[in-house]
Each structure stands twice: as structure tokens, then as C-alpha cells.
From TrEMBL:
It is a multi-pass membrane protein. The keyword Nucleus does not apply. It comes from Odocoileus virginianus. Keywords: Membrane, Transmembrane, Transmembrane helix. The chain crosses the membrane at residues 36-57, 121-143, 149-171, 178-198, 204-223, 235-255, 267-287. GO terms for molecular function: transmembrane transporter activity. This is Solute carrier family 22 member 31 isoform X5. GO terms for cellular component: endomembrane system; membrane. Residues 1-292 form the Major facilitator superfamily (MFS) profile domain. InterPro entries: MFS_dom, MFS_sugar_transport-like, MFS_trans_sf, Sugar_transporter_CS. It is found in: Endomembrane system.
Amino acid sequence: MGAGLFSVVGILLLPGLALLAQDWHLLQGLSALTTGLLLLFWGFPAVFPESPCWLLATGQPARARRILWHFAKASSVDPEDSREEESSLAKELDVLCEGCPQPRHHSVLELRHTHVTWKNALILGFSSLISGGIRASFLHSLVPSDPSFYWPYFLVAGLEAAATIFLLLTVDLWGRRSVLLLSTLILGLASLLLLAGAQYLPSWTVLFLSVLGLLASQAVSALSSLFSAEVFPTVIRGAGLGLVLGAGFLGQAAAPLTKMHGRHGFFLQHVVFTSFALLALLCILLLPESRGRALPQSLQDADRLHRSPLLRGCPHQDLLPLLPASLPGAGTQLVQEG
């Protein structure tokens, strides 16, 4: 969520930077230079270290121990002279390092051998694809003619910030799956109403539905990324998150269809993504709820994340007794008759 807010800040600052540069060649060079500075982190692990959790999950305890010790020294904590819990962690890491295990690297292709995780990946990628692809339809409904560049640009950035704040306030309260289901429902209904009655609805209603659909699409896109980071196991979390993000960008690549000759391209794209959004409602019900659960470390742990009841208080099994307690002799009578 924090990365999403920083992305919004970058989007809002980009027009000002373009105004100062006055030349797209210079702007492109500044962007490439800024991105190239991130490569400096590659040579300085102390500045941007590897995840100790991932190192432990892939059988690299020695590197994990060095990074954890670096964190401890940076926090002015002596790992050799600490509390009992921390010293037990140090002993456990020392035992793991003595075995000299070989690193166990995993590929995202191993999802083929899972029973549940590949379905979760498919559903989250499908949701991200829909949210990225249907955004162009809402923008086209919002500004059917050729508009000025600035106000749709800033509107999309503002809605992305609003969607991120909405998720910050709701996902821990209502749960990831419930909020994703609600956002997809709003997305599908707004798209369906625009598809069915855009020519007959008042202009303010079309404007409201387009803004609501854009907000819901931004929420679905951000929540799909957050959800995938909690559903994929540690050993392939980065690759799984990349697949979901890539599906969203693939959906955005369908935006030029709205510029095809006439309205045939826009109408076809709108119909397809509206149908997909309604189908995604059923698929999201199959996802597990990751709120309050420990992050899965291995593929086996991820396969144990089964679907939970959507509403709180729903019993997992029927706890009613077979016979009421007021009839103590009923059970004996049944046994005798049997």
C-alpha cells in the first residue's frame, strides 16, 4: 500500500518535471538516470539486503545469519549477549549453518505440482487482468470525445490514491477476500450499467458510474497484488507477485482497442471485460482468507490455505448433538432396539 502511494506521488510529479524539461529526450534521459541509480543497491547488500525469510526458506542460513546480525548491530543490539529468545535463535541458526545445506531454489513452474496454489494464482491473475483492461472502457465513457490531457491524468492518479486509502481502512477490518469481492461487484455493476444504458442515462449518472468504476478497478488491482503477496509461499513469492502484476499490465495493453475505427472496438472490449468481471465474482469465492494467518513458507504450506467461510460466525461443522440432552435414555433404547 505504501508503494502504491509513492507511485501516485511520482505520477503527480511527472507533469511538473516535463514542464521543467521542455524536451522529451531530456525527460527520458532523466527518467533513465533515476532508474539507473537503483542499480547501485545491487552492489551494496548492506543498503538493500536480501530477505532473511526467503534465505531461510531456500536453505541459505549462513547468509540469513549475516543479514540478521547486521540488523542487530544497526539497532545497537549485541546478538551474542541478548535475551533467551534471541540467543535460542542464534543457536538454531548456528546449528543450521553447521550442516552446510545446499540452496534449494524454486521456480514458478512448480505451481503445476500444487493442488490449491495454482488456482489462487490463476484467480488473482484473472482479477488483475480485468482491472487493468476495463479501465480504458471507463475512461472512454468518462471522456467520449478527445479531451485535454491533464484532467483525466490527474483524475486517475487521485482515484488511485483514494483506492489505496480505502484499502488501508478496510482490508484489516473486513478481510482481503471480502473487500476484493465487494470491489469486483462494484466494478461489474458499474460496467454493466454503462454497457446497457449509457445512451439513456443522464450525463451525471454516466460520470458517477465511470468514476466509481475507475475507483473499483484501482482497488481490485492493488488488492490483487497485496493478496498474492500473502497467498504465494516465500520460496516463489517474488515470481508469483510478478505474474499477477504482469497480468494487470497485459490488460492495460488492450487500451488501444477503444481507438479503433467507429465504436466496434470499444463495444467489444467493454462486453468482454464486463463478462469477465461477472465471472470473477464466482472465482473470488474460492480464494482463502489470508488476514491474520502466517505467511506460507513452502509450497506445501501454501496448499494448506483452504477456503474459509465468507461471513463471520459460520460454524465449520454441525455441532448439534444427534439426540437432545433431555432424553438420557434415548441412546440406550436405540442401542437395545438395534
